[in-house]
């Protein structure tokens, strides 16, 4: 169940990498662009075919022209590796994506999720705050925040009787 | 329309407005449903450092208020407080020795409310005592009036998972009666920082028990405060990297 939820989140954070960088922030979607490999790769990752998605995205990356497209594609690879349960590789791709484009909230959000998988809740929280500051309306951010809180906060109830 | 007629209409309108305003205000005023006159078994709580008090409170029809405390198992003499007053279904009186101003909402099913001084605040909750306060009360055995309320099972509320996800902490106070078999009855939430905590509290109270006592007619007042807290787990690997 938890695994399914995590994979669902990762898929939700896949951008259409071949994007023309026209973003609808409320929908968290990016309008598709011209690089067919990246488009197909993003779609494969979205439907849970991570290996195929990674292969296609890597092919697409060879022809990428813009920094924005490359950043989105690397963020997608990050999401795919996180969904495959390989957070180290995911973090590496997300970091490359962020270096290329600091305002890529999906890359921060994906990296936050990868940190979460590693149990690095403080770092996960910090990345999530950055993602939220860039796109406060993103629903996935609230979901990841809830997951981090579940794991990183210890609940207790203190009771006192008055009698 | 002549000037006289216009003046007459204006006057009538003014009178109508003046008459309807207090009527509207009266409509929105709360109506007292509880008669506070009588003797009450009360628990008075506040800052943990000062502990709780068990008192007998006596409100007389002529608005006199008296209180007797339970100290070391003995009922002290009745001490007069200020006269009680009711306005907008809110009962008020003051204990001038402790400086506590007491307030009770008379739309509730039982007597209880808050108290405050300049720097402190707390609450109080009462059940009706089935005897008439009289000077001879000083001779009465407290066990028959207020048998000790001893918890035998204290259930802890479940911290709602949604509250954890949303990082919500909170505070609540519930007051209730305990019947002779030790069951909690008529629980009321008198303070609540977030609705999310209401159901777990009521659930936990339903699973809690107190020790029984022989007098089946007697209901004892009790309150329980809850603090819902979230602390960072120390196992976060981020800090050790």
Q: What is the gist of this entry?
A:
The complex is a heterodimer of chains A (163) and B (241). Chain A has 163 residues and is mainly alpha-helical. Chain A has helices at 2-12, 36-46, 50-61, 67-83, 87-100, 105-118, 121-134, 139-152, and strands at residues 23-24, 29-30, 153-162.
**Side-by-side strand order of the widest sheet of chain A:** 1-2
**Structural class category of chain A:** mainly alpha
**How far apart are the first and last residues' alpha carbons of chain A, in Å?**
44 Å
CATH superfamily of chain A: Tetratricopeptide repeat domain
What is the CATH architecture annotation of chain A? Alpha Horseshoe
What does the average pLDDT of chain A come to? 84
CATH C-level category of chain A: Mainly Alpha
The biggest beta sheet of chain B reads: 10 strands, antiparallel
State the order of secondary-structure elements of chain A, H for helix, E for strand. HEEHHHHHHHE
Sheet bearing the most strands of chain A, described?
2 strands, antiparallel
Task: Give the percentage of residues in beta strands of chain A.
Answer: 5-15%
Mean pLDDT of chain B: 82
How many separate helices of chain A? 8
How many domains in all of chain A? 1
Number of helices of chain B: 4
- Rounded to the nearest angstrom, the radius of gyration of chain A is 17 Å
* CATH third-level topology of chain A: Serine Threonine Protein Phosphatase 5, Tetratricopeptide repeat
- Overall number of structural domains of chain B: 2
SSE map:
The complex is a heterodimer of chains A (163) and B (241).
Chain A: H1 2-12, E1 23-24, E2 29-30, H2 36-46, H3 50-61, H4 67-83, H5 87-100, H6 105-118, H7 121-134, H8 139-152, E3 153-162
Antiparallel strand pairs in A: 1-2
Helix pairs in contact in A: 1-4, 2-3, 3-4, 4-5, 4-6, 5-6, 6-7, 6-8, 7-8
Chain B: H1 3-28, E1 38-45, E2 53-59, E3 65-71, E4 74-75, E5 79-81, E6 85-87, E7 90-95, E8 100-105, E9 112-116, E10 121-128, H2 142-145, E11 151-153, H3 161-165, E12 170-178, E13 184-192, H4 198-207, E14 209-210, E15 220-232
Antiparallel strand pairs in B: 1-2, 1-10, 2-3, 3-4, 3-5, 6-7, 7-8, 8-9, 9-10, 11-14, 12-13, 12-15
């Amino acid at each position: 169940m938890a695994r399914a939820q995590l994979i669902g989140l990762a898929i939700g954070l896949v951008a259409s990498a071949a994007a023309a960088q026209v973003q609808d922030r409320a929908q968290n979607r990016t309008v598709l662009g011209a690089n067919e490999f990246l488009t197909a790769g993003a779609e494969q990752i979205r439907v849970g075919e991570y290996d195929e998605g990674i292969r296609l995205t890597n092919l697409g990356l060879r022809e990428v022209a813009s920094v924005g497209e490359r950043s989105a594609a690397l963020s997608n690879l990050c999401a795919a590796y996180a969904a495959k349960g390989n957070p180290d590789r995911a973090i590496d791709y997300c970091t490359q994506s962020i270096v290329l484009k600091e305002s890529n909230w999906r890359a921060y959000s994906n990296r936050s999720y990868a940190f979460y998988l590693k149990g690095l809740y403080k770092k996960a929280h910090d990345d999530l705050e950055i993602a939220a500051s860039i796109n406060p309306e993103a629903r996935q951010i609230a979901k990841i925040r809830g997951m981090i809180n579940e794991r990183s906060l210890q609940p207790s109830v203190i009771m006192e009787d008055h009698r | 329309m002549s000037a006289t007629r216009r003046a007459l209409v204006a006057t009538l309108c003014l009178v109508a407005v003046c008459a309807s305003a207090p009527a509207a205000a009266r409509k929105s005023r709360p109506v007292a449903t509880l008669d506070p006159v009588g003797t009450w078994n009360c628990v008075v709580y506040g800052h943990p450092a000062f502990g709780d008090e068990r008192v007998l409170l006596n409100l007389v029809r002529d608005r006199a208020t008296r209180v007797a405390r339970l100290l070391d198992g003995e009922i002290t003499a009745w001490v007069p407080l200020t006269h009680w007053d009711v306005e907008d279904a809110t009962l008020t009186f003051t204990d001038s020795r402790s400086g506590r101003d007491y307030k009770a909402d008379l739309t509730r099913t039982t007597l209880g409310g808050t108290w405050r001084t300049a720097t402190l605040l707390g609450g109080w909750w009462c059940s009706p005592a089935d005897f008439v306060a009289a000077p001879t009360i000083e001779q009465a055995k407290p066990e028959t009036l207020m048998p000790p309320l001893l918890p035998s099972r204290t259930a802890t509320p479940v911290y709602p998972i949604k509250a954890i996800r949303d990082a919500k902490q909170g505070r609540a106070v519930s007051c209730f009666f305990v019947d002779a078999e030790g069951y909690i009855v008529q629980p009321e939430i008198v303070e609540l920082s977030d609705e999310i905590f209401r159901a777990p509290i009521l659930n936990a109270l339903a699973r809690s028990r107190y020790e029984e006592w022989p007098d089946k007619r007697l209901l004892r007042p009790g309150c329980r405060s809850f603090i819902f807290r979230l602390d960072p787990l120390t196992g976060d690997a981020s800090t050790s990297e």
